[in-house]
Automatic annotation (TrEMBL):
Span list, region Disordered: 1-27
SUPFAM superfamilies for this protein: Acid phosphatase/Vanadium-dependent haloperoxidase (SSF48317)
Gene3D superfamilies assigned: Phosphatidic acid phosphatase type 2/haloperoxidase
GO molecular function, a single term: sphingosine-1-phosphate phosphatase activity
Organism the protein comes from: Triangularia setosa
Protein name as it appears in the record: PAP2 superfamily-domain-containing protein
Amino acid sequence: MCKPANSSSPGSELPAPSAAPLPTGGGEKAKDVVVDAGLKSLDHYRRALPKWRYSLRQYLLPLVRWETPYLAAFQNAVRTPALDSYFAITANLGTHTFFMIGLPILFWCGFRGFGKGLVHILAEGVFFTGFLKDMCSLPRPLSPPLQRITMSGSAALEYGFPSTHSANAVSVAVYGILMLRSEHNIYSPTTTVALEALAYFYALSIIIGRLYCGMHGFIDVIIGSIMGTAISLVEFYYAPAVEEWMYSSNYAAPLIIALIILVLVRVHPEPADDCPCFDDSVAFAGVMIGLECGMWRFARYSPYATIYNGPHASFSLAAMGWSMSITRVIFGVLMIFAWREAMKPAMLRFLPHLYRLLERVGMSLPRRFFVPASEYKDVPLHVRDDNLIPNVSDLPKVMRSIRGPGRGRSVSIGPQSAADAYETLAYRERRRRESLEGENGGVKSKGSLMSLRESAAKQNGADVFEDGGKSSGVQQQNGRVAEFEKMMGTGTVMIANEDEMILGAEDELGEKEVFSRLVKPRVRYDVEVVTKLVVYTGIAWLAVDLILVTFEMIGLGAGHLVAAL
């Protein structure tokens, strides 16, 4: 049986908005008004966003609504249990967690240049897509009619535009293809073609999977893919010049880059709803700072720099041997987890006291949806605040998910986040308003997709039946799209396991009920921002500098390769 997804503690519910007449904004004609996705007096986003951001959102919102029934028709036409499992599992290959675990291994196995490029494009992709997500505050395509298939509990709480998965996948594929076509390619022509084909297949699987799983729309993946491509092109053609400047400069170069990154974190837009995009952006900002500072220090001051850096680097993975390489990876991963498990609790204990002192002198930098230190006593040390690297206590659950990934998959139907709820209620209000205006003979607002199609079909002489069917295959498909549009703005919040994919009842709940059934975001504390910056700066610095030095000191290094030459 399906079960409501309302696992929240008392007092954590979002306030249910109260109904109110639709404002027309200073004499604006009703037909020109796009009903807003917020329903706190139908004015949530108008009040929560600056005017220019609200105008941008209103311009883009009709695109999200227009594409939703087409996405539902696509999902309905191609969906099978096998594809459900495939796309739910492969979606993990486009997540930040997958890359955060895999990228340090590239540095420890001698692929420092390629690893650094991947960190750059992924960090920039996560940061700038998160920047746009919070700036535009656009909802994901509505469910129903879509059913959302996911293995992630936090993904549904994020905004939809643009797709970070698509940006990550396309940036990695494009960067890999550019490297394969460069003069530094060491592979045979056959291997090169095979790797290029794999890169294309990987990117397409992630992009199509986001559409198939109901997590993104066409505009989301298109803009995400364009951003990923642009980021990779900039990295491939311009990063070498920046790197040369850094390594030839004194400490001012990494300091300038770190300050630029911190400024970008500070100007990250405030979202209209409680969205976790900022958390991931902060984590990757820390990764970038640690990467640049660590690689600069290692290249300039480490006695082992010539082993890994430069055209005459002596490191050889083949000469290292499998046993030594695997031991290095295991030891390096353990060092990263040890750093995180030690530093995170220490920061969460110390920073609240510092923040309270700063608040007293008026130096606090409050951010929406983060509880200030003056309003809490202590931060729970085991708070699940990390979407990138799991806590050590969560590793058994992660391993069980890897061994049996199908069990972690769920199918959700209905609003899951505040943005979903506002959009559901707003679209419902739009349909109700259109119906009332039609009955009263008033000025009609912009028609729905279904009414526009019916009007066009009648003008073209096509027969339109009551059930939406048409006299041709194309018209029948349009009829199905129209039926999916009827489902927009309906439904309850339902979660189904993979063996229980049952569509939720399409009852139109009131506003309070819709909000009470949401998946509630966790409480976030102001000290988490600096904690993440410090922890992830340290993780990256360890991976590219201090862990390599430790390898050499404990007998897991590559110094013996130099002596053997």
